[in-house]
Amino acid sequence: MKCYNCGSTNTYVKDYKNNFTINEKNISFISKRRFCHDCRKIVYDTLLDNEASKIAIEAFNKKKRIIKDCELSEYNGFTPLSIEKIKNVILYLASETIPKTKLLKEMFYSDFYNYKNTTTSITGLEYVKLPFGPVPDDFDTIINLLYKENLIDYKIKYINDESECHLIKSKKEFDKDIFDSEELEVLSKIKTYFKSYTTKEIVEKSHQEKAYLRTSKNKKIDYEYAFEIEL
Questions:
Q1: Distance between CA 230 and CA 192 in Å, rounded?
Q2: How buried is residue 211: exposed, middle or buried, by Cβ count under 10 Å (0-12/13-18/19+)?
Q3: Residue 152: how many other CB atoms lie within 10 Å
Q4: 92-108 burial, b if ≥16 CB within 10 A, otherwise e?
Q5: Which residues contact 218 (CB under 8 A, 6 or more apart)?
Q6: What string of DSSP letters covers 132-150?
Q7: pLDDT tens across 136-158, in order?
Q8: Tens of pLDDT along 86-131?
Q9: Left (φ > 0), alpha (ψ -120 to 50) or beta: where does 37 sit?
Q10: Which of 151, 152, 91, 148 is nearest to 123 (CA)?
Q11: SS3 for 162?
Q12: Is the pTM of this model over 0.85?
């Protein structure tokens, strides 16, 4: 694809913080957009740009719930989905700046380790197997939710002008009162256990879990594998 600003065909795709204005209302969200490697301007990409517009319109019209409820099953730890707990788990784990990939892994360990101890997850989230490890299903929607509500700071740090590191930090204290004592203990354990882990190290550890090894690519992960996790 060609950049209409400088004429370069050297382009790449990255996560971008969009700001749309629809009927004088600002809509903010994160989505994939194409950029010129040379002048750093947005490059027109029909598929990506249309998808960004679709997200903006859906957010404005509120035609869809931000996160869909699911039937209780082995894929959500037989636990009703709790939007408030999802928000506050992230606020707790991201009280200090944390890379997005590491955050998503800590969310996985929090829910699965709680299931191991109590046979219920904390949030009711479903998790899927992706190349960088287990992550919450539709995690971009979750992150967008907190960003839209101004609960987190989301920054993209560039390394050597090529690699990107997506950093998240809470902008609000988490509400401990919505968790029971066992959930709070698990959250504290996960945050302490992985405090010194780099993103690469926690990704590598998650790849060694049977929950990851025995699940097919892009498929949901059964919470029964939680009993195999050792921390």
A1: 15
A2: buried
A3: 21
A4: bbbeeebbbbbbbbbbb
A5: 128, 129, 130
A6: TEEEETTHHHHHHHHHHTT
A7: 998 988 998 899 899 999 998 87
A8: 999 999 999 999 999 999 999 999 999 999 999 999 999 999 999 9
A9: alpha
A10: 91
A11: coil
A12: no
Q: How far apart are CA 29 and CA 215, in angstroms?
A: 31
For 150, how many CA atoms within 13 A lie in the half-sphere containing its CB?
Answer: 2
What's the mean per-residue pLDDT of the chain? 88
Q: Which two tokens stand for residue 227?
A: 């009993």
User: Could you give the CA distance from residue 79 to residue 68 in angstroms, rounded to a whole number?
Assistant: 14
| C-alpha to C-alpha distance for 34 and 12, rounded to whole angstroms | 6
Q: How far apart are CA 85 and CA 123, in angstroms?
A: 6
